[in-house]
Amino acid sequence: MNAVLDAYHGLAYALTTDPLLLLASAVATFDPFWSAFDDDCDGEEPPLDIALRVTRSAFPDIYAEAVEHLRAGAVYADMDKLLCKAISTKGIPLDDLDMIGWGVPMTAYGLDLEDPEFYAVHEDLLPVLAPFGLHLSETDGYRIDIPEAMYAAGRAIANRLHEQTDPVLRQVGWLYGWLFSCTGNSLVDYTDETLSEIPPLSWSKDDIAFAIEVIEEAEGIMSDVQAGLVALQTRPELLMVLERNIDKLNQYDKQGKRHGQPLVLEWTSAISGAD
């Protein structure tokens, strides 16, 4: 027994004096999966293994925390909660570790104006769409008939509002940009169905950085969308000016672009609050 203890103490001493053994010990302690992820993922790895691979490459701080919890005996449920929360904090919304193998998760905010069920959930949007001539009665029970001219008018109004310097008008512009799918941000303009047809971003560093940028921009736009809706709901004079400009836009189109004359929309009264 003494020989075994002596051998143990001898190895322990060697470990503290040999630089190579010290490095190996540090690697085994802080990066136990250093050799496990040499090959590319084959798509059949367990979610936890994929999460460790992703965080080791893209989020080393999360990886170190995960390794620490694994050494402490954390079970899968604990790791699921820990990793989802940590990755979400980085700007990537992850609710379930089982989804990590599908690529970077993205949330679509887009809508379908021709879907009757949309208005059952968003009845508050009917007053801000009414000036464009929306008629819910024009439906076969499955789809609402919305002419292309209405989309064109909505996008034209959104673009003109974005040109304004008043922040409230620009927020209203983001509202109509969302409603008519013309913000330029794919997450805001695409529905879940449309987004699902696009190959997901990988967990490479470049794709993660791009995803975070797009997600942050989308969240900022949706914040402005909500502010623009509140502005129209609480400032009737703003909605009146909007209606007049939509009428002017429609008349302009009906009269053949007014013989080549530029279209001028007036927003001053909306800013000042005048009738």
Detailed description of the structure:
This protein has two domains: 31-102, no CATH class; 116-272, no CATH class. It is elongated and about 100 Å long. Helix 4 packs antiparallel against helix 5, helix 8 (148-162) runs antiparallel to helix 9 (167-179) and helix 9 (167-179) crosses helix 12 (205-234). The chain is an all-alpha fold and 275 residues long. It is 63% helix and 0% strand. The chain is built from 15 helices and no strands.
Short structural summary:
This protein has 275 residues and is mostly helical. The protein has 15 helices and no strands.
Helix content: 55-70%
Ends apart, CA distance between termini? 98 Å
Order of helices and strands: HHHHHHHHHHHHHHH
Low-confidence stretches: none
Let me know the largest β-sheet: none
Overall number of strands: 0
Shape: elongated
Strand content: under 5%
Give the SSE map:
Elements (H helix, E strand, L loop, with lengths): L1 H16 L1 H12 L16 H12 L1 H12 L4 H14 L26 H6 L4 H4 L18 H15 L4 H13 L6 H4 L2 H5 L8 H30 L1 H19 L1 H5 L7 H5 L3
Helix pairs in contact: 1-2, 3-4, 4-5, 8-9, 9-12, 12-13
Keywords, please?
single chain; 275 residues; 15 helices; elongated
